[in-house]
Amino acid sequence: MSKIKMNTPLVEIDGDEMTRVLWSKIKEILIEPYVDLKTEYYDLGLENRETTKDQVTIDAANAIKKYGVGVKCATITPNAQRVIEYNLSQMWKSPNGTIRAILDGTVFRAPILIDGISPLINNWKKPIIIARHAHGDVYSAVEMKVNENEKIFLDSDTDKRLLVKDFKSKGIVQAMFNTDESIKSFAHSCFKYALEQKMDLWFSTKDTISKIYDHRFKDIFSEIYENYYKDDFESNNIEYFYTLIDDAVARVIRSSGGFIWACKNYDGDVMSDMLATVFGSLAMMTSVLVSPNGQYEFEAAHGTVTRHYYKHINGENTSTNSVATIFAWTGALAKRGEMDDIPALVNFAKKLENATKKTIEKGIMTGDLVGLFSKEKVIPKKVSSFEFLEEVKKTLENI
Ligand code: NAP
Ligand code: MG
Fold first, then answer.
1. What is the maximum span of the chain, computed from C-alpha positions, in angstroms?
2. Which residues neighbour 31 within 8 Å (Cβ) at sequence distance 6 or greater?
């Protein structure tokens, strides 16, 4: 069988620990035998970020800008302990944060649904994709403690001075911001992604209470929808639906799924953990960064699975779930195929996704899924990290 040819390179961004181990095996076992893989490789392993003074992260982001599609392995975000462990000259910033800042993108997280792993909410039949506005608000707020008998003002020029609070006793204050520019990018990314997925888009804030701040989000979304996307939404039979965050939460729980839920920064942070738990596991959650200009970076939502990595380097067998990382590759290959008009590449990606799901549906899975799996006449069997990839390959060659 001849291998599928590619035109434009895929931006391949390698990472750390257990996911780095899985990364090369996924390529070797499931992709390279079938695709004449053309990638531009960036090594974001922590050692190379240190060697290049993190320039490699910036280069990788610019490569996605240039070529349009990237696939990224999970990476360590250093903390004090990692600085010692890797003998770092600096506590390098989160690579995802750096890439997101350069692409100005929005992250969409989608669960991979498997027959046999039921969401804890049993009316959820279709995926719910969450989009988090990862900019500003409480994440870049300034805050302080206040003493008794202090007056705190919000103050840009003395004419417009606003009294926050005349404190009689001790307390706390916080000030936060967002920018129209960032909210607009967020809105464009959400509308574009909804059109592409042909799914309804929901957006929610607390505009009844926050009459200027949250209301600005609501107005910007509404203006952008009316001016740029309304016609396309209508012709694709999908809907833009704005509602108060409280109402959104109630409707999401009662829904059968099948929509994108755009959230402000804090709501998205909290709700994405809730959604991952209800759908089963973080190891079954994919993530895609979509820029307002239509550039894409695919990855798994989980981290580098450190605990498994240390078992692995001690020679112990691991049973680490590679599904979200496989889906990062298939997402990227399908998008590359779509952009370059290579249907064979799109079909291969869909086939590999199917084979991965079918393997689990037959009862072959990594340890994390065994306790979640329940299907009549199928007894789940736990396999190792690498056995799972070999089993997916067998399924792939038989469908
Ligand atoms: P993690 O790597 O997601 O792992 C946390 C725990 O979740 C694991 O110990 C494991 O539980 C379970 N788990 C996660 N993914 C799994 C998989 N694929 N298969 C099986 N089990 C899985 O999160 P973390 O331990 O908090 O972070 C580790 C490192 O990853 C950190 O250095 C962090 O900076 C980085 N990180 C990177 C990204 C990213 O690049 N996108 C995201 C998050 C974290 P058991 O140990 O109980 O089996
Ligand atoms: Mg969170």
1. 80
2. 37, 329, 333, 352
Of the listed ligands, the closest to the CA of 300 is: 1
Cα of 304 vs centre of ligand 2, distance in Å, is 16
Using the mean position of ligand 1's atoms as its centre, give its distance from the Cα of residue 62 in Å.
27
User: Which ligand 1 atom is the nearest neighbour of the CA of 287?
Assistant: 41
DSSP character at residue 121: S
Q: Map tokens 């291969």 to a residue.
A: 348
Model confidence over 223-232: pLDDT tens digits? 999 999 999 9
In the reported structure, the alpha carbon of residue 394 is separated from the centroid of ligand 2 by a whole-number distance in angstroms of 36
* Shortest-distance Cα residue to atom 5 of ligand 1: 305
How far apart are alpha carbons 331 and 297 in whole angstroms?
9
- Structure-token pair, residue 74: 């999970």
Give the span between the Cα atoms of 66 and 183, in whole angstroms.
24
Domains by residue range for the chain, with CATH:
1-100+288-399 (3.40.718.10), 118-135+177-279 (no CATH), 142-175 (no CATH)
Q: What is the pLDDT of residues 127-157, one digit of tens each?
A: 999 999 988 899 888 999 999 999 999 987 7
pLDDT digits (tens, 9 = 90+) for 258-308: 999 999 999 998 998 899 889 988 899 999 999 988 899 999 999 999 999
Closest CA to 199 of 190, 207, 209, 187: 190
Nearest CA to ligand 1 atom 43: 303
